[in-house]
């Protein structure tokens, strides 16, 4: 074998020292230090006419809160930004295949993006590093707790669906300098969000849509990305704690029609149920926002039921009044009957006394006739005439008593008919209002639940 070939094999197969590379070698090559203002003071372009394209991606982690009273939407999102830095590039083959390096955030320029709807500063921990690639692509990833304002429509509360926006744009750079593009489309963002979703609370996440928008301000155009979060409320808690109790109270109010009107507890029962509805209305006032374009259906639901129960209470008061009038007429009739009984007893006693006196006189007359029959024949004739006149007087008294009894009977019948008239009207009012009440309740509940489901 030739010597030259042996030397070539030795040089090829011999153990040669492997080159050691580090991330610092890349930074030294780029001259990337914390004191170098070239990388962090200005937009990273070699020519100011070049456009910086920023790709943005937002994935929903959790729905922390949706506050209707203050119309606040608080999601927890994962945000990714990517842009090109024209001053950064290296050949991975010269640095042992290193294609990506992580550096502190304050070493590089970052896009001045902000959320238009944000009302509080983000207090979540920030990722201290960003990644730079060999081709100049810079990637920033961080978790953000967004406290934003959201215009909510609570017309169908608690069966409502809300859409809240997070609009992202640059503070000082127009479209001539920064162009915003979504990294993921709506379907992909929705799918990723459902896969990484941690918690949804009282809400069910439906969709995350992404739209680009341009607007003009001070003769300049600005790019804007709008992320729309669509979510549906889980109504079970509100149905159990609010809607069903009101429905139960309404059922109790309907059942109270079967309580006897002669008892006083019917009126007290209806007042108690009405006060219970008032307490639930105070709870509703703490849930719903103070301002709304449309009257919430749940407010209509409570107000109409409250009005129906109030009308039922007024009807009970009216029927109770009719019953009281009937009772007063019955008591008056009883007093008159007692007074007439006392008068009749007095007349009977007087007649008995008169009869006893007449009997005594007749006995005295008979004794006198036996003793002096031969002397007083003319006197006996006078006594007989007197007895006949007294019997005629007694008959006249009996006739007057019969006439007085007839007048009393007529008065009693007229008073009784008046009382029956009041009772009849009370029963008719009660029966008619019950039919109206049940019909109104069924019709209203059908309409309100149909509106909720539409």
UniProtKB/TrEMBL annotation:
<dbReference type="Pfam" id="PF02931">
    <property type="entry name" value="Neur_chan_LBD"/>
</dbReference>
<dbReference type="GO" id="GO:0045211">
    <property type="term" value="C:postsynaptic membrane"/>
</dbReference>
<keyword id="KW-0675">Receptor</keyword>
<comment type="function">
    <text>Forms serotonin (5-hydroxytryptamine/5-HT3)-activated cation-selective channel complexes, which when activated cause fast, depolarizing responses in neurons.</text>
</comment>
<keyword id="KW-0813">Transport</keyword>
<feature type="region of interest" description="Disordered">
    <location>
        <begin position="333"/>
        <end position="353"/>
    </location>
</feature>
<feature type="signal peptide">
    <location>
        <begin position="1"/>
        <end position="17"/>
    </location>
</feature>
<keyword id="KW-1133">Transmembrane helix</keyword>
<keyword id="KW-0407">Ion channel</keyword>
<dbReference type="Pfam" id="PF02932">
    <property type="entry name" value="Neur_chan_memb"/>
</dbReference>
<keyword id="KW-0472">Membrane</keyword>
<dbReference type="GO" id="GO:0005230">
    <property type="term" value="F:extracellular ligand-gated monoatomic ion channel activity"/>
</dbReference>
<dbReference type="InterPro" id="IPR049944">
    <property type="entry name" value="LGIC_TM_5-HT3"/>
</dbReference>
<dbReference type="InterPro" id="IPR036734">
    <property type="entry name" value="Neur_chan_lig-bd_sf"/>
</dbReference>
<keyword id="KW-0325">Glycoprotein</keyword>
<dbReference type="InterPro" id="IPR036719">
    <property type="entry name" value="Neuro-gated_channel_TM_sf"/>
</dbReference>
<feature type="domain" description="Neurotransmitter-gated ion-channel transmembrane">
    <location>
        <begin position="243"/>
        <end position="386"/>
    </location>
</feature>
<comment type="similarity">
    <text>Belongs to the ligand-gated ion channel (TC 1.A.9) family.</text>
</comment>
<keyword id="KW-0406">Ion transport</keyword>
<feature type="transmembrane region" description="Helical">
    <location>
        <begin position="236"/>
        <end position="259"/>
    </location>
</feature>
<dbReference type="InterPro" id="IPR006029">
    <property type="entry name" value="Neurotrans-gated_channel_TM"/>
</dbReference>
<dbReference type="InterPro" id="IPR018000">
    <property type="entry name" value="Neurotransmitter_ion_chnl_CS"/>
</dbReference>
<keyword id="KW-1015">Disulfide bond</keyword>
<keyword id="KW-0732">Signal</keyword>
<feature type="domain" description="Neurotransmitter-gated ion-channel ligand-binding">
    <location>
        <begin position="40"/>
        <end position="235"/>
    </location>
</feature>
<feature type="transmembrane region" description="Helical">
    <location>
        <begin position="432"/>
        <end position="449"/>
    </location>
</feature>
<feature type="compositionally biased region" description="Basic and acidic residues">
    <location>
        <begin position="333"/>
        <end position="347"/>
    </location>
</feature>
<dbReference type="InterPro" id="IPR038050">
    <property type="entry name" value="Neuro_actylchol_rec"/>
</dbReference>
<keyword id="KW-1003">Cell membrane</keyword>
<feature type="transmembrane region" description="Helical">
    <location>
        <begin position="298"/>
        <end position="323"/>
    </location>
</feature>
<protein>
    <submittedName>
        <fullName>5-hydroxytryptamine receptor 3A-like</fullName>
    </submittedName>
</protein>
<dbReference type="InterPro" id="IPR006201">
    <property type="entry name" value="Neur_channel"/>
</dbReference>
<keyword id="KW-0628">Postsynaptic cell membrane</keyword>
<keyword id="KW-1071">Ligand-gated ion channel</keyword>
<dbReference type="GO" id="GO:0004888">
    <property type="term" value="F:transmembrane signaling receptor activity"/>
</dbReference>
<dbReference type="InterPro" id="IPR006202">
    <property type="entry name" value="Neur_chan_lig-bd"/>
</dbReference>
<keyword id="KW-0812">Transmembrane</keyword>
<feature type="transmembrane region" description="Helical">
    <location>
        <begin position="271"/>
        <end position="292"/>
    </location>
</feature>
<keyword id="KW-0770">Synapse</keyword>
């Amino acid at each position: 074998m030739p010597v030259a070939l042996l030397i070539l094999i030795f040089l090829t197969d011999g153990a040669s020292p492997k080159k050691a590379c580090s991330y610092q070698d890349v930074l030294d090559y780029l001259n990337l230090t914390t004191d170098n203002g070239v990388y962090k003071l200005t937009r990273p372009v070699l020519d100011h006419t070049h456009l910086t394209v920023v790709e943005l991606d937002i994935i929903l982690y959790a729905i922390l809160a949706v506050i209707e009273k203050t119309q606040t939407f608080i999601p927890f999102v994962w945000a990714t930004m990517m842009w090109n830095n024209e001053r950064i590039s290296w050949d991975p083959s010269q640095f042992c295949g290193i294609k990506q390096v992580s550096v502190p955030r304050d070493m590089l320029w970052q896009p001045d993006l902000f959320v238009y709807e944000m009302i509080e500063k983000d207090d979540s921990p920030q990722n201290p590093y960003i990644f730079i690639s060999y081709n100049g692509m810079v990637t920033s990833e961080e978790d953000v707790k967004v406290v934003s304002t959201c215009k909510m429509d609570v017309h169908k509360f608690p069966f409502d669906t809300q859409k809240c926006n997070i609009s992202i744009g640059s503070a000082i750079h127009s479209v001539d300098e920064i162009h915003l593009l979504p990294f993921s489309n709506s379907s992909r963002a929705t799918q990723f969000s459902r896969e990484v979703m941690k918690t949804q609370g009282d809400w069910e996440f439906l969709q995350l849509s992404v739209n680009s928008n341009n607007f003009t301000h001070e003769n300049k155009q600005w790019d804007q990305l709008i992320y729309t979060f669509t979510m549906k409320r889980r109504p079970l808690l509100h149905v159990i704690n609010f809607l069903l109790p009101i429905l139960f109270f309404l059922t109790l109010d309907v059942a109270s029609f079967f309580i006897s009107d002669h008892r006083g507890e019917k009126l007290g029962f209806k007042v108690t149920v009405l006060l219970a509805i008032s307490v639930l209305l105070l709870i509703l006032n703490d849930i719903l926002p103070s301002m709304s374009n449309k009257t919430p259906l749940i407010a209509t639901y409570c107000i109409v039921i409250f009005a129906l129960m109030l009308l039922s209470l007024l009807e009970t008061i009216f029927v109770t009044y009719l019953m009281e009038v009937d009772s007063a007429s019955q008591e008056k009739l009883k007093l008159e009957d007692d007074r007439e009984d006392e008068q009749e007893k007095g007349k009977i006693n007087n007649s008995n006394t008169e009869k006893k006196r007449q009997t005594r006189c007749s006995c005295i007359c008979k004794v006198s006739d036996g003793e002096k029959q031969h002397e007083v024949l003319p006197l006996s004739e006078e006594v007989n005439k007197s007895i006949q006149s007294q019997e005629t007087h007694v008959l006249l008294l009996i006739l007057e008593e019969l006439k007085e009894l007839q007048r009393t009977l007529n008065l009693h019948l007229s008073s009784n008919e008046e009382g029956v008239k009041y009772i009849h009207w009370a029963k008719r009012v009660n029966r008619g209002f019950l039919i109206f009440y049940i019909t109104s309740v069924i019709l209203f509940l059908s309409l309100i639940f149909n509106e909720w489901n539409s």
